[in-house]
From TrEMBL:
It comes from the Bacteria. One of its GO terms (cellular component) is protein-DNA complex. The keyword Translocase does not apply. PANTHER family: LYSR SUBSTRATE-BINDING, TRANSCRIPTIONAL DUAL REGULATOR HCAR-RELATED. Coiled coil: none annotated. Belongs to the LysR transcriptional regulatory family. Pfam families: HTH_1 (PF00126), LysR_substrate (PF03466). This is DNA-binding transcriptional LysR family regulator. GO terms for molecular function: DNA binding; DNA-binding transcription factor activity. Keywords: DNA-binding, Transcription, Transcription regulation. InterPro entries: LysR_HTH_N, LysR_subst-bd, WH-like_DNA-bd_sf, WH_DNA-bd_sf. Residues 2-59 form the HTH lysR-type domain.
Length: 284
């Protein structure tokens, strides 16, 4: 028999992938949480998470247990509402990155209620969908995993953000070779966008310098407006006043997908949220 309190504890742990933060949310000690997770793993007969350096990730079995725990919690809440004669509309959880919220999903957020927002990168977005923490995820995917249903929302060119008076702004389109000699504001070296850009610059033998590393489009654009350097961003990102953007034709386009579990395909409320997201992106 799987203890319900252990399932509840593991669902919270799966949200954080951090024993300290999960224990604090549960108002129990960290050793007590370790015991609950360990006993649950023993009951299941499989490891539920693995450690890679300082980071923790769920195993496939851990994903399944977290998903089951959240589904059980939703069913229990619905059952209690039915018994008590109350009716509550559960917020739908949407997982996406800061850029998607700022530049693509405003219309969906205004149109759909109630909504819970989870701010995360594409890797954590997929994890949130797989474990049931998020009903729907929106993000950039280079390849669509086999275990989720993905709907292509839009595909954008990668663009150079530059002052409207910059000589390169005279061109309608640019190539990677046009970036020769530029100083660029880019994300940290571990980020997929940085790797793609550096690979293209290296392949075209472009001479460039790193002006500064910045995480997130708003901070990146802030440094561009300060004159620190120019930057390459996804085409959905709107340049600030006094600046413009030009597509770089030989960089790969950036596809944004809406992602959910295949078992949720016939969920009416999820379908409404997907529609709201698609309309928001189309209106972009």
């Amino acid at each position: 028999m799987v203890p319900t309190d252990a399932l509840v504890a593991f669902a919270v742990f799966a949200d954080h992938l951090n024993f300290t933060r999960a224990a604090a949310e549960l108002h129990i000690s960290q050793p007590a949480l370790h015991v609950k997770v360990s006993k649950l793993a023993t009951t299941v007969g499989r490891p539920l998470y693995r450690r890679a350096g300082r980071a923790l990730t769920l195993t496939p079995e851990g994903d399944a247990v977290a998903r089951f725990a959240r589904d059980l919690d939703k069913r229990m809440s619905a059952f209690l509402d039915e018994v008590r004669g109350t009716e509550r509309v559960r917020p739908m959880a949407l997982a996406a990155g800061e850029g998607a919220y700022l530049y693509l999903l405003g219309g969906a957020i205004r149109a759909f209620r109630p909504l819970k927002l989870i701010n995360c990168d594409s890797t954590r977005m997929l994890a949130a969908v797989r474990t049931g923490r998020a009903d729907l995820g929106v993000g950039v995917l280079e390849a669509v995993p086999d275990d989720v249903t993905a709907v292509l929302l839009a595909s954008y060119p990668q663009t150079l953000v530059l002052p409207a008076a910059h000589p390169l702004a005279e061109h309608a389109e640019l190539t990677v070779r046009d970036l020769d000699g530029l100083s660029l504001v880019l994300p940290p070296a571990s980020r997929p966008h940085r790797k793609t850009v550096e690979r293209a610059l290296r392949s075209s033998e472009v001479d460039w310098t790193l002006a500064i590393e910045a995480e997130g489009w708003p901070l990146t654009l802030h440094f561009v407006t300060l004159g620190v350097g120019l930057s390459i961003v996804n085409g959905c990102v709107r340049p600030p006043a006094g600046f413009t953007s030009r597509p770089i034709t030989d960089l790969p386009r950036v596809p944004y997908y809406a992602v959910h579990l295949p078992a949720r395909t016939d969920d009416a409320r999820l379908a409404e949220l997907v529609t709201a997201v698609r309309e928001s992106v189309s209106a972009g």
